[in-house]
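Question: Send over one sample?
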Amino acid sequence: MKNWSDIADVQPLASRIITNSIKKDRVSHAYLLHGARGTGKEAIATMIAKSLFCENLDGVEPCNQCHACKRIISGNHPDVHWIEPEGQSIKIEQIRNLQKEFSYSGMESTRKVYIIKGAETLTVNAANRILKFLEEPSKQTTAIMLTENSQAILPTIRSRCQIIDLQPLNVIHFQQKLVENGLSENTARLMGALTNNLDDALARSNDEWFATARKIVVQLVEMFAENPQDVYLYIHNHWVVHFKERSEQEEGLDLLLLAFKDVLYYHIGNESEMVFFANQDPLLEKATLSFSQGELLEHLNTIMQAKRKLKQNVNPTLVMEQLTLQIQR
């Protein structure tokens, strides 16, 4: 999304609120953008920064061609700072470093923008330190906090931000866009279940790592159905080797969840809801013969529990071992 009209196509209310404040020169000193993954939080934050720094602004629309716009797009503008979790959280040391930047004048102007990704992961100490900036706002400084869970953020922080709630995107419309960009209908349905970000979806559809991940999940479901005694070894030889980073492990469980959902949908004759398997995939028949509807519901719950354990920083190999044993029973 390169301009506000693109944002307006997917988040019309958020676009209208923010562009009106830009037109009136009343940009908030702090925004809290709240929405699920893929709803455009980072794109909106980047757009705000471009609108504030663009050298050739046309109304509210940045030109995307000037030196400032290009550096913001590439993440290299000296007065636009991105903060994101280190590991599982944003730590107090990161906020201390950010506060040092507060005390300096801008490198190229008097304005500064700070964008905090995953704001819900601020530790208590880090959140209390960022509160100082929000309590003493500078007209030339704008903080933009991005979160998927605004309720996990301190009420004192929320009260000092203009909260922008982003709406879930229209899945059918998104899938149509993916098909228009060359994806098959089956792939478009899967991508629509994983993300609402067009660029992310297109990148995944051509990503070798993702293709291998999908293949591993298919083989794992097949093994659960036909050779459950071999699953434990398969987990160690293939799953653990491929899904190394925390984000990759979470995506692997997302794919496994969608695969088992499809088996359940096929079981109850609701094939139109399937997103992972093609309707005629022979594995679906094998899996429905191996698992009852009650067992499938239990397996879905087990996978959800495994996802929660990953979020709680439980050892990922242990998580998969436990999941395997529970599904094997």
